[in-house]
Design brief:
255 residues, alpha+beta, Deoxyribonuclease I, Chain A, 6 helices
Length: 255
């Protein structure tokens, strides 16, 4: 959402796609703090509760992550992931008398395996263990790692992927969508390949899965689907985002 290319045109697609599934909780990454698009989206969808966590460092006034909730937020906290200004956040809500923790993160960008991303996952897991106590947790986000990487394998050791639970495997890809990105955004990505010494990974045709919904074993998953994957009717390259979304129907309780 932070790349505001075609934002005025595509934001209605985002609202419609989310309204179609009527979620109680939404995890957003790369929200723009400049135009406050997370608050705008919450207002359009009728969410009363918003928890916004800005990035650390020089981008703290420009970008962050956010959780939208229809349920009152009883507790909230943000974790500094110690790299690229990345953060994770977690809220506590109560659904049908069951206390639930809902986490959201946007992890270290580096193609292929990344020791920095693995360390962020380990930090996130340790923090959630302390924050949530014995209550179930759901973890959503852009992990910036494909299923075969060490960081995601670490997540699989502790939590179930909602999409894998329903379909037996992760999606073929969640990004990039055919949305046309701004030249500045493309140049910024290209520069990052060299900054993080990964030019061998440059592939203009690459696509893969970087987005996940992980759930506690005690949480029942009745559905999980890719959403926000349809273009505007009159524009085949206009999509809600440069990533597809994931939607899961979850229920707390012992399986």
């Amino acid at each position: 959402m932070n790349d505001l290319s075609h934002w005025e045109a595509r934001r209605s697609l985002l609202v419609q796609g989310l309204a179609d599934v009527q979620p109680d909780l939404v995890a957003l990454q790369e929200v723009s703090l400049v135009n406050d698009n997370a608050a705008w989206l919450a207002g359009q969808l009728g969410f009363d509760h918003l928890y916004l966590s800005p990035k650390r460092g020089p981008d703290s006034h420009k970008e962050g992550i956010a959780i939208l909730s229809r349920l009152p937020i009883e507790a909230q906290d943000t974790l500094d992931l110690l790299g690229q200004g990345r953060v994770a956040q977690c809220i506590q809500v109560t659904d049908s008398a069951q206390t639930v923790f809902f986490a959201n993160g946007h992890l270290f960008w580096q193609p292929g395996n990344s020791q920095a991303r693995l360390q962020q996952v380990e930090r996130l897991l340790a923090w959630l263990d302390e924050f949530r106590g014995d209550h179930p947790v759901m973890i959503c986000g852009d992990f910036n790692g494909t299923p075969d990487t060490q960081a995601i394998q670490k997540m699989y050791q502790r939590y179930r992927s909602a999409y894998v639970h329903i379909h037996g495997t992760e999606p073929v890809y969640t990004c990039p969508t055919p949305l046309t990105r701004s030249l500045l955004s493309q140049l910024r990505t290209l520069r990052s390949y060299f900054v993080y010494l990964r030019p061998q990974h440059i592939n203009p045709f690459w696509r893969g899965t970087l987005d996940y919904i992980f759930v506690d074993p005690s949480i029942q998953v009745s559905d999980c689907q890719i959403i926000l994957n349809k273009p505007a009717p009159n524009h085949p390259n206009l999509y809600p985002s440069d990533h597809f979304g994931l939607y899961a129907n979850l229920k707390t309780g012992v399986l």
